[in-house]
Amino acid sequence: MRQSQLFTKTRKEAPKDEVAKNAQLLIRAGYIYKEMAGVYAYMPLGLRVMNNIIRVIREEMDAIGGQEIFLTALQDKKVWEKTGRWSESVLDIWFKSELKNGSQVGLGITHEEPVTNLMRDYIHSYRDLPRYAYQFQTKFRNEERAKSGIMRSREFIMKDLYSFSKDQKEHDVFYEKAKQAYVKIFQRLGLGERTYVTFASGGSFSKYSHEFQTVTDAGEDLVYVHEGKKIAVNKEVLTDEVLKDLGVKREDLVEKKAVEVGNIFSLGTKFSDAYELCFVSEDGTKKPVIMGSYGIGPGRVMGTIVETLSDANGIVWPEEVAPFRLHLVSLGKPGSDAEKAAVDLYSELSKLGVEVLFDDRDLRPGEKFADSDLIGIPLRAVISDKTLAMGGALELKERKTGAVSMVTKEELKNRLMR
Amino acid sequence: MRQSQLFTKTRKEAPKDEVAKNAQLLIRAGYIYKEMAGVYAYMPLGLRVMNNIIRVIREEMDAIGGQEIFLTALQDKKVWEKTGRWSESVLDIWFKSELKNGSQVGLGITHEEPVTNLMRDYIHSYRDLPRYAYQFQTKFRNEERAKSGIMRSREFIMKDLYSFSKDQKEHDVFYEKAKQAYVKIFQRLGLGERTYVTFASGGSFSKYSHEFQTVTDAGEDLVYVHEGKKIAVNKEVLTDEVLKDLGVKREDLVEKKAVEVGNIFSLGTKFSDAYELCFVSEDGTKKPVIMGSYGIGPGRVMGTIVETLSDANGIVWPEEVAPFRLHLVSLGKPGSDAEKAAVDLYSELSKLGVEVLFDDRDLRPGEKFADSDLIGIPLRAVISDKTLAMGGALELKERKTGAVSMVTKEELKNRLMR
Question: How many other C-beta atoms can be found within 10 angstroms of the C-beta atom of residue A368?
Answer without folding.
Answer: 20
